[in-house]
Structures are given as C-alpha cells and as structure tokens.
Amino acid sequence: MQQKHLKHIKYIFILAAALLVSLSVISFVRSGNMANASRLVSHTNNVMFQVNDLFSHLKDAESSQRAYVLSREPVFKQQYSQAIKATLAAYNKCTALISDNFEQQQRMLELKQNIDRRIRFMNAIMRDADSIKISPKRWLVARSIMEEIRALNKEIINEEIILLKKRQALLSQESTLAPLLTAVLSILSIVIVVFSYLGITRELARSNAFQEDLAQRNLELANRNIELKNMNKELESFNYISSHDLQEPLRKIQTFLSRVVNQDSSEVSEQTKYYLLRAQDAAKRMQDLIQDLLSYSRLNAEQFKAEKVDFFDLVAKIQTQNQEEIESTGTTIVVSGTPEIEVIVKQFPQLLVNIFSNAMKYVAPTVKPFITVQNRVVTAKEVSAFGFNPQATEYYQITVSDNGIGFNEAFKDKIFDLFQRLHPASVYSGTGIGLAIVKKIVDNHNGFVTVSSSENQGSTFFVFLPKSVL
Question: Has residue 300 got a pLDDT over 60?
Fold first, then answer.
C-alpha cells in the first residue's frame, strides 16, 4: 500500500516536471524565434547600409578623380586612392553579409564587374590627366558605367527592402505572441504547481494514514508476538507435562492391569478379563496419542539445517529400526532412483516411517504389504503439473507406492489434517496424527506433498523437496 502511494507521488512529480519542462521548451523556442526575427531585421538593415556605403565610397572616388583632373592637386589624388580602398572594403563586407542569399550574390558579382570596370576607367583617366586632355566621350562612357552600377545598387536595395518587410512582419508577429505566450505559460505553470501540490499533499496524507495504520498493525503484531511467546511457554510446559506427568499414570495403569490379567487370571471372570484388556488397549492408545502429539509439537520448535545424505542408506536404517514390524507383517520394501538427497536428517526419517507404517497397517488381511520407494530429481515444471507453485528450480521427488486398501481421492487433502481418520479405530489402529506429521515435515523442508489413491488399488504418495531446503 505504501509503495502504491509513493508511486502516485512519483507519477505526479514526473508529470508536473514534464509539463514544466515542455512549457519551458516552448517558451525557449518562441523566444529563439523572436530573437532570430530581430536578428534578421538587423541583418537586412546592415546589408542596406553597407550597399549604400559602397555606392557612396565609389561616388567619392569619382568626385576625387574629377577634382584632380580639373585642379591637378595631389590631395585629390590621395583622396581618390582612399576612396577606392574604402569601396573595395565595403564590397567585401557586403559579400560576407549576403552569403546566405544566392540571388543577391549573383547581383553582387555583376556589381563587382561594373565596379572593376569603373575603377580601371578612372585609373586610366588619372594617368592621362597629366599629359592629355580627357575627351567628352570618355566622360560619357564613365557616366554610363556609373548608371549601371547605380541600377544594380538600387536592385540590391529593393530586394533587401522586400526582405525587410517580411522580416519586420515576422518580428511583429513574434513580439505580439511573446507576451501572450508568456502569460499563458505562467498561468499553466501556476495551475500545474497548484495541482501538483494538491496531489502530493493528498498522497502524503494517504501515506501518513498508511503509516499510522502500519504502526497500529505493528503494535498489534508485537502484542501477538508476546502472546505467541507466552503460548510457546505454555506449550513447553504442556510438553513437559505430557512427557512426564500424563504418561506416568498411564504406565502405572498399564502395569497394574497387566498384573491383574496375568497373575490373577484364575480369580477373574472372562468378562472381567475382557474389560481389563479393553482398558489396557485404551491406555495404550492414549499413550500413543500423547507421544504422537509430542512428536508433532516438537516439529514446530525444532530448527535443523538440511544435509546431503545417501537415500538408500537412510531407508536401510529405517528398515533396520523397524525390522520387527516389517518381518511380522511380511512387508517387502524396494528402493530405487537417485542415491543423493538433501533433507533435515532429524525429521525426514520420521516422514518415511509414518508412510511405511500406513502402508503396512492399511492392507487387506490376506495381502502382504509391498512398498516401492523411488527418489529422483525433477524440474519445477514437473512439480507445477501436480498443482503446486514451486519456487526452486529443481526438486527431489520421493514416490512411495503400496498395495494397500487405498481410499477415495475425495479425501486426499483431508488425510493430512490432525486427527483425521478414514477408518474406525476398532478396525485399524492409529491416532490420526501420522500423516499430519508427514505434512509438517514437508512444510519444514519448504516442499509439497500429495497422494493418489483409489479404493482397493493401493496408494502413491508424492513428496517434493527443493534441492536447497534452507
């Protein structure tokens, strides 16, 4: 829940930041457009000024040339040279300014050709002025060249005037939009900030409420833990009482009943002996029940690490320890599969013992129990085929099959619960705890257990234990 609130706050913050960045980008672009439009207007004015300056310097050179021809004063010759240099410099500036306009560049090349012609013509007149008289025809030619230059100059200026009008219109448009855009962006930014503040405030309030609820739940959990510790202490006391105080009277009852039945049998009637044997059997079942309950409760408290052992050796030890029961029932146990297995050694043998015990107990009177045990490594996919949700990648599958009386599969989950019996105690002995212990041991291994069975067809138990238990 807290993670959800934090995600909401994160999304609100990201949205607000994205919108503000977008508005900033738009504002930046519009400001750039306005600055570019202003630059273009300034550039056009500068081109017009330089073109006029070029023509002005050329006219100064022409005036200095005429004054020198009429007066032969050296000062006019010097002014002429300066004017020519200024003309060429102005031309270079104009050429640099119109480098982005192809049509104007073509006009400037044509203008340069005429300027070069005019300068050559003026230089010739300046050389001849000291020795010969300049004819009127030459002045007319010079005037003709100057008129061509004047026309080209005017053409260039007119083109720049057209560009100036377009660029001034663009600048006017950008200047009009800029304040409006700024106002709109400012209002949107304020709205975004307000909504972001409200959203973040709301999520923070939810987060605070969640924190308070979490604190309350933690307090309740702490109280539950205290109660659980007290219950564990009580359970330990119960275990002590069960293992000592409750079993001691039962042992005495069994002892006294046994003495009465064996030593005083001549003085006891058959009916009384029958009742004594029934009482003795009831005391035995009570003692078995207490021992099974102790075994089950100890599984909750015990903490052991898993160890790798030889599966065949483990089953062999179980057979040795239960040899009397196996031989008395004529049971055959066949083991196969992978020898290595990783289990909690203090608990796993009890799992097999309980399943074997059921196989030897729940069998037809005329049938000798036949049990097959197989251990193999399977994948998580194979485990999930049984309806489980495996977390590990590989599992040990221990399969135990028997030729017993079986049962209806409708009860296959119920049989792993405490005190669940499918048959009356008068027909088959037991406490109803054996398979509950099996389930508990499997849970301690973080594994799974299930069974497949049908009436009079035997049963097959499937136990899945992860290759890395703890």
Answer: no
